[in-house]
Design brief:
The chain is of the alpha/beta class. It folds into two domains: about 1-330, ANL, N-terminal domain (Rossmann fold), CATH 3.40.50.12780; about 330-430, ANL, C-terminal domain (GMP Synthetase, Chain A, domain 3, 2-Layer Sandwich). The chain has twelve helices and 22 strands. Helix 5 (about 105-120) packs across helix 6 and helix 10 runs antiparallel to helix 12. The protein binds 5'-O-[hydroxy(phenylacetyl)phosphoryl]adenosine (DLL). 5'-O-[hydroxy(phenylacetyl)phosphoryl]adenosine binds near residues 233, 237, 238 and 332.
């Protein structure tokens, strides 16, 4: 089994912890000096960088949350001047204002190497042809995997998303050996292939690198059988770097977190208390090497647990379990992060008042669908039919512009949405993964 960075992926724990401490201290100094937000936060708590003398001192530092990034939109959390930033990405819809993240030249180099680690762990080599079916743009997925594959020396086919039949044609003609996509898009490809009567055994696919959204072991088996490849799970988030935070090795028994670059903690999402190894809770990450956009104790919102037992692959890095949901109400629909509050805002701005609504997410065929049902309120009821139609159109346009996801919007009678103890069930997620 190949290991991309033997030195950092197989360190003895005490050496790793020493490296983490040195890098943590450098990061704390950097944010204290360059990011007003952190300096103010530390001052309020009476903390100076010299207070961080051991890894356990990390708990003295405050958490950073999505709201902090939102308040500092767009560049407030950057720790270098813009002229040192060579790339900007952003997190898919959180509010109408996305979260903006930046990378220095070194950050891009570091990031490419982190991605190269999980690609190598899955078995990718310089002989491979890697078809990237993530969306190229502000989303970190495509560029992250693209640069990682190039670092390895593999040949990249930068397809982007959609155009399923063309994807399949290119897979056949170019002899793609590695597929990169969201797990749900991999299934969509498999199903289209089935309809077209293409036998996956006639393709050259060997490896599938998937991530960006939650998926189950059952879905992995399905994808592996239908596409005749070995599928690995890879985790990351834009705020922390993008893909390249953690990835599976061929043991497929949890994703190794690249601890020389990130310190993971598991906390109780209610109390913020740090939980012992093995406990389930919210993953919190601190970056150790990032220059442009360092994050201190970032609350990912993802629920998981950490496994420090040795792995047969030889890597000494801790493994995180597949995420088991979120501590907030974020939904991931077709790989896009969607908050019910965005949909609520879209309805509010079209109706100019709040209206009861329900969001239904389903997996129709291989793809997710999003339906929004709105109860007729006095304001909406009093509109003429024509105006009701244009109201629905406006809501739809707002939702599409904020999330980029196609949505169907319809009205139902007042008080007809199901309620529990008078509360409407806001989100019905019917997807079975
Ligand atoms: O999805 C980065 C990424 C791209 C990771 C490609 C892996 C591959 P965001 O758009 O900021 O970044 O979404 C981050 O997606 O907090 C999780 O809730 C979810 N997520 C990402 N990877 C996984 C995964 C990218 N493997 C949010 N399993 C995260 C479950 C995942 N959830």
């Amino acid at each position: 089994m190949n290991i991309w960075d033997q030195t950092h992926e197989c360190m003895l724990r005490d050496e790793l912890e020493q490296l983490q401490l040195e890098r943590l201290q450098a990061t704390i100094n950097r944010v204290h000096k360059n990011v007003t937000y952190y300096r103010k936060k530390f001052n309020e708590l009476g903390i100076i960088p010299e207070d961080i003398r051991s890894l356990s001192d990390l708990t003295k530092l405050p958490f950073t949350g999505k709201e902090d990034l939102r308040i500092n939109y767009p560049y407030g959390m950057f720790a270098v001047p813009l002229r040192e930033v060579v790339r900007i990405h952003s997190s898919s819809g959180t509010t109408s204002k996305p979260i903006v993240v930046g990378y220095s030249k070194n950050d891009i180099r570091m990031w490419s190497n982190l991605v190269a680690r999980f690609m190598t762990a899955a078995g990718v080599t310089s002989d491979d042809l890697v078809q990237i079916a993530f969306s190229y743009g502000l989303f970190t997925g495509a560029f992250g995997l693209h640069y990682g594959a190039e670092a390895i020396g593999a040949s990249v086919i930068p397809m982007g998303t959609g155009n399923t039949e063309k994807q399949i044609m290119i897979m056949q003609d170019y002899k793609t050996t590695v597929l990169v996509s969201t797990p749900s898009y991999a299934l969509a490809l498999a199903e289209r292939m089935e309809q077209m009567g293409i036998d996956p055994k006639t393709l050259s696919l060997k490896i599938g690198l998937f991530g960006g959204e939650p998926w189950s072991e059952k879905m992995r088996k399905d994808i592996e059988n239908k596409l005749c490849l070995s599928a690995t799970d890879n985790y990351g988030l834009s705020e922390v770097i993008g893909p390249g935070v953690a990835g599976e090795c061929q043991c497929k028994n949890g994703m190794h977190i690249y601890e020389d670059a990130f310190i993971p903690e598991i906390i109780d999402p209610e109390t913020g208390e740090v939980l012992p190894p093995g406990a389930k809770g919210e993953l919190v990450l601190t970056t150790l090497t990032k220059e442009a956009f360092p994050m201190i104790r970032y609350r990912t919102g993802d629920l998981t647990s950490l496994d420090y037992s040795p792995c047969a692959c030889g890597r000494t890095l801790v493994r995180m379990k597949k995420t088991m949901g979120r501590s907030d109400d974020m939904l991931i629909i077709r790989g896009v992060n969607v908050f019910p509050s965005q949909i609520e805002e879209a309805i509010y701005s079209a109706a100019r008042s709040a209206a009861p609504y329900q969001i239904i997410v389903e997996r129709k065929g291989p793809m997710d669908s999003l339906d929004v049902i709105i109860e007729v309120t006095g304001e909406i009821f009093s509109l003429e039919l024509q105006k009701q139609r244009s109201f629905l159109e406006t809501v739809k346009k707002h939702i599409v512009s904020v999330t980029g996801i196609d949505v169907s919007v319809r009205l139902v009678e007042a008080k007809s949405l199901p309620r529990v103890e008078d509360k409407i069930i806001r989100v019905v997620d019917k997807r079975k993964m």
